[in-house]
Amino acid sequence: MRYFCFSLALLLVGSLSAPRLKAEERVEYNRDIRPILSDNCFQCHGPDEESRAVDMRLDLRESAIANIGDLAPIKPGDAEHSSVLLRVTESDPDLRMPPAETKKQLTPEEIELLRKWIDQGAEYQEHWAFLPIRDDEPPIVEHPGVDHPIDRFIVRKLEQQGLSPAPAAEPETVIRRLYLDLIGLLPEPERVDAFLSAWEENREKVIDELVDELLASKHYGERWGRHWLDQARYADSHGYTIDSARNMWPYRDWVINALNDDMPFDQFTIEQLAGDLLPEPTKSQQVATGFHRNTLINQEGGTDDEQFRNEEVVDRVNTTGAVWLGLTVACAQCHTHKFDPITHREYFQLFDFFNHTADVNNDGPTVKVSAGEMLLDDVDPERLEEIALAERQLEELNQSQASRQIKWEQSLLESSASQPVTEWTPIEPTDAQGLSETKFTTLDDGSQLIETQTARDVYTLTYAAPTAPIAALRLRVLPHESLPQQGPGLASNGNFVLTSIEFLQNGKPMGVTLAQADHSQPDYPISDAVNGKPDSGWAINIGNGSAPGAKMNAAHEAHFTLEEPLLPANGPVTIIMRHELNDTYNIGRFAFDVSPTAPAPLSDESLLQLVRTPADKRSDEQKKQLATKFADHDVELAEARRKLAGLKRDLGLGKEVNAMVMQEIAQPRETYIHIRGDFTRKDKKTGLLFSDTPAVFPPLEKTGERANRLDLARWLVSDDNPLTARVTVNRIWMRYFGEGLVKTENDFGTQGSYPTHPELLDWLAHYFMESGWSMKKLHKLIVTSETYLQSSWNQEELEAVDPLNQLLGRQNRIRLDAEILRDVSLSASGLLNSEIGGPSVHPPQPEGVYSFTQSKKDWTADTDGDRYRRGMYTFFYRSAPYPFLTTFNMPDMQSVCTRRVRSNTPLQSLTMANDASIFELAQGLALRVLSEVKGEDDSARRERVVRLYRLCYARPPSADEVERVLAFEARQRELFTAEPEAAKAVINEQLAEITSTENAAAWTAVARAIMNTDEFLTRE
Amino acid sequence: MSNLLDRTRRHFFSDCAMGVGSLALANILAGNEARANTSTKPALRSHFAPKAKNVIYMFMAGGPSQFELFSDKPKLRELNGQVAPDSFFPKEKNFAFIGKGAKLLGSNRRFQHHGESGLHLSELLPHLGDITDDVCMLNGVVTDVFNHGPAKLFMNTGFQVPGRPSLGSWVTYGLGSESENLPGFVVLQSGPRGPRGGNALWSSGFLPSSHQGVPFRGTGDPILNLTSPEGFDRERERGFYDLVGDLNRQRYDITRDPEIKTRIAASEMAYRMQSSAPELMDISSEPKHILDMYGAEPGANSYANNCLLARRMVERGVRFVQLYHTDWDHHGNKGDNLGEPLEQRCREVDAASAALVKDLKQRGLLEDTIVIWGGEFGRTPMGEVREDYPGRDHHIDAFSLWIAGGGFKPGYQHGETDDLGFSVTSGKVHVHDLHATLLHQLGFDHEKLTYRFQGRDFRLTDVHGHVVEEILA
Question: Out of B1, B257, B454, whose CB is closest to A813?
């Protein structure tokens, strides 16, 4: 029913703030008249020229009071002689306004308001939301002890209606409320205890300290980041019908981190809209522009990319309008806005800001980001600089690949002329160890054969101190009849992946300056075995790019030249061979040889022939072969990669992905009006358009010749922009009270509702800007007000006057957001993995989710700690989202969502009761209370109910509640005792260990029930 | 207080004209026990007396070929193999895959007149021939978009980008639901894969999410999470819902929050659904002659079963049932062409679609149930050359779709196309017109069935659409 309240609220706003007027009361244009005119008249007598019926506008006073014939539409001071009034009261339906075909009619009450307003002089006001933000002093109120500025505004209004605020909420409610609102988790009972005892001493202080503590928690960024991600339409897939996965999580992590750092909202805005255009943008500023890379990409065959690029630009314009300005600019895509002063032309001037990015319905520009990188905090800037430097070096090497290959080719040709022969001497290890049960056998030729292998094996080989200096080593991998397909590897096809080879003498790692192999699988060059990355290595399969006649199941060799020679004086030598990519991809038979000199380049006749073929005569296949060979030799690149990987590993960074970012193209595209919003119909008559902001707002300052996204972003957060701060504080307010001060939080235009507390809204907006756009300061201000801290229970005297609680004579109860429902279940059960950020995760989901999608998605439920991550990290496929989340009204992420609806449906009841991912948390909760409160006598059971209540609701149960729950528990136990099979089915292994089966099953049933109560799902 | 009530009521009826809203309002203001959303009783305020109250929409995903099924074009056969005229490829026109130089493709299917209306049907649809006197055939349907995903969205929501409410959501929003135990809008799926576009096709968009289509699966749990965790039988579940209900009522006594009452009602409906949904899905209780007529088999996941389920749903008060049957995209690859793959699709749907109409009729349900059969677009008169199999590209300028029941003119054909079937020559019905007409039969003026979102009154038909009076009885 909640959504009905929502739509009703829109309708009731006017009625409350404008109680029936007595004759002498002043009618206000913005509050009383504009809604009437806007709803009924502006469509034809408003800003849109094309739909204007006659040349008369009622939205501008000078037009409205100008005579047409004998009469003016509005004659100030004389309603009886104003044609508007005559027309709306006209009895002839053909003449009455609005015309019959609009199916609209003014109510007698509205007509009365119009009459009074005209009689009082018909004073117009500019639309309130477009006026500068005011800074009125909070009013003085009669209630004693009210001094928080927010409370003064709120109580003043209540007093005007003869009302008082609700009593303050109980301390247990307060701490649970603050936990849920600020970090989205439940307080532990011990934390509640500490809070309660401090509350006795100094309520104000303890609240103050708790708020500081929660705002400093890393979970704050998750809780409030998720609100922002709704507006960013963040998802983990491209959308439309193919809907394949994308790597957007670096942007998500950026948001979390920015909020935790309390990045000022103006900077937060600028980096997301135009971080790429800042001077020398950091990687983090580029990742921030992922905000507008959250648009959909249509990968269906036969798609016109230009069409969907235009869709993306349109979405970026509309989203920017909705998020920062709270305006429905989308209306002006097809025609001049009917109600708000945004013309069709101005829409496409906004469009021009976003019309020049490099992505065209595709991934477009990306930057490489490692897991954790966007969350780095308190890191020595020098280390970041080192990483940046290593990244640049790697990038340069990638750039110079072609020229370095040419050099290499030349050196091959030169050295092939005079080739010394390398002297290789075999060596045998004194010891060979694998990971666990690995069995090595030394064959007659001194080579090692693996007879029993271990998954992802690591071989550690020890050799006696050399008798002479060693400059290079040779690894030979050899076939053997005992190996799959004769080897040389242990994979079923005889392949292997050597992910790393390390040479140590006396514990000191020796650098490798050159690695070469006689043969490598394309994309698995030998240099990848010395690049320090566990997800790449040397392998030997044949593929596109292999030399003609190359074989996998044959002997192969690789040479490694060391930076410094191994010396006799330095003792024994250790060689470590790692196989970290696949379970069975271990080398099956191998031997090592040493040489006192650096080895000659591997002479390979077919390679030399390739090199001798002029570059422009090489076939694509030959080019690929040559590139594969070069990659084998490209130790410089491998070394750069190894260095970067090492630096990142030191900072605890993980998997690296390409994050989509915004980037301008060099030559701007041409922007025209799209006739009726159709991108194929460009209005050439009006001509080329250039970026600009709508005329109704303060002017835009350009830094260059043509205004760009950066100018737009700065304009949005400039001091004289009347909307951004109002819209933003209103949305933050809405999260705390269920409703904004402006109910239509997504429409601050003339069709939107008038604020219930206009002075408070402006005061907050002003405070927000004055505080340096600090979101944390604003949060603290709001949640330390008594308005926020009061009880949410319905108050009898209030219900009669203000049933929808617009005056905030009490708090509102709010059903928790979808992700938070999962989070509170996790935190009550004690199973929560509170890790922050990183790639999205896959908790269990019911069977059958993909029976309605075009393609099945790969959804294997995580079995490690990722199974218990917060709801916001759940992987989100747009075409088939995680059902738990959407059942509880998570938006579909197809377009901007500034406010979620909250429904209350049977499917939600079924989900909370039966979903496997929630049921396992109910088991976890049962296990927790059974282990925290031991014993099976009556008092233990009672104590356990108390514990359960405190974990879930932060409060102890009433006596009635204890009796009711215990009666249920006893009955369930009885039923489960009679049916031991059912009891076994209900519990898991851990529960089975802690108590009797029927007891464990009964408490699981109790935990499940508590997690299904309204109170558990609700922020009181 | 009475003022407030008056004003609000008036607002509701003038702005929204939504009976559902007025009911909710009465509940809130009177403090009555609120009902769960999905079981809103039809305290309806239709704009005029509805002719129909239910819809069954058989959505043939991929775009069936009108040339092989409904539209016999001798001229096209005559010019088979000739290059299509340049006028078929104006500058602003796009096809998904073909371009200038594509050759005309005549159908080799035999056509025959059926019933009193003389409807032309191909040999692939013999059973449809039995019900032509109940069918209103539209031959001049046009749409705006030629890719599958966007075109399906357009057919369902009147908009080609995801995010707007679907037809089924608008209908349940407008009419409420008659079922205490089942959702008002149910989606069924058959064929090898789900329809392109996914859940956006039955999304409630900005309408309350209780109006979104609920997918029912043919096998296993029809609704996700319908079954209690293992070990919880009916008796234990009764105890569970009683406890949750009691604790919620205790909480209500303290907080007086009407939302809790809604939650109690929703829980009770959830409990009832646990038995009503499996009962609904269990077709083994149907007599053999009925199963045979549809070609349905208990336990199978087939289009035929879904047709039978659709009837059972309508009988039980489900307002809008949408059946997706996929793989009609016959471009001319080995697996998707106008030969055997098309024949196979027709075998899957022909008897069952006809049986549904017959069955509804014999039960007196056809009068107030609109049955629709069609895809997101049609196919081109030009052939597509891929792997030496006959195939056609997507065509948006003229295609066919049929409707039965719900006050549509039975035994009637509307709309004609030119000799080559490229354009509509008379009786054009745009997707927006179709939507307007469907809403009209359900008692709503498509211009007045609106929902205010982000400052604008949105409607299914955006700023378009005309009721096609000619096809109404």
Answer: B257
Half-sphere exposure of B55 (CA within 13 A, CB side): 31
Instruction: Give the residues across from B122 on adjacent strands.
Output: B111
Q: Between A and B, how many CB-CB pairs are < 8 A?
A: 302
Per CB-CB distance under 8 Å, the chain B contacts of A844 are: none
Q: With helix as H, strand as E and coil as C, how does A288-345 read?
A: HHHHHHCCCCCCCCCCCHHHHHHHHHHHHHHHHHHHHHCCCHHHHHCCCCCCCCCCHH
A5: chain B residues, CB-CB within 8 Å: 28
Share of chain A above pLDDT 70, in %: 96
What part of B 382-421 touches A (C-beta under 8 Å)?
Answer: 394
Model confidence over A580-592: pLDDT tens digits?
888 889 999 999 9
Tell me what pLDDT residue A708 has. 96
The minimum CA-CA distance between A798 and chain B, rounded to whole Å, is 12
Which of helix, strand or coil describes residue A587? Answer: strand
Which region holds residue A800: left if phi is over 0, alpha if psi is between -120 and 50, else beta? alpha
Residues B124, B126: Cα–Cα separation, whole Å: 6
- What is the distance between the alpha carbons of residues B253 and B251, in angstroms, rounded to a whole number? 5
The mean pLDDT value for A390-408 works out to: 88
A771/B160: higher pLDDT? A771
Contact assessment for residue B39 and residue B180, using Cβ atoms and an 8 Å cutoff: yes
User: How many angstroms separate the CA atoms of A537 and A300, rounded?
Assistant: 35
Question: In this structure, what is the dihedral angle of CA atoms B23, B25, B29, B34, given to the nearest 10 degrees?
Answer: 50
Tokens read off for A628: 């594969």
**Chain A contact for B5, CB < 8 A?**
no
Do β-strands A589-595 and A656-660 pair in parallel, antiparallel, or remain unpaired?
A: unpaired
Q: Measured between beta carbons, which residues in chain A are less than 8 angstroms from residue B244?
A: 1009, 1012-1013
**Secondary structure of A994-1006 in the HEC alphabet?**
HCCHHHHHHHHHH
Provide the residue type at A388 as one letter.
Answer: A
User: Domains of chain A: which residue ranges?
Assistant: 17-125, 247-364+665-713, 422-634, 916-1019
A171 Cβ contact partners less than 8 Å away, ≥ 6 residues apart:
A195, A196, A199, A203
With a CB cutoff of 8 Å and minimum separation 6, the contacts of B57 are: B167, B168, B320, B321, B322, B323, B372
Q: Which domains does chain B have, with CATH numbers?
A: 53-225+287-471 (3.40.720.10)
A692 pLDDT band, cuts 50/70/90, is very high
ipTM over 0.90: no
Other Cβ atoms less than 10 A from the Cβ of A591: the count is: 21
Q: What is the full DSSP assignment across A650-698?
A: HTT---EEEEE---B-SSPPP--EEGGG-TTSEETTT--------TTSP
| Residue from the list A7, A892, A975 with its beta carbon closest to the beta carbon of B200 | A892
Would you call B126 an interface residue with chain A, using a CB distance cutoff of 8 Å? no
Q: Using CB atoms, which residue from B10, B448, B456 is nearest to A103?
A: B448
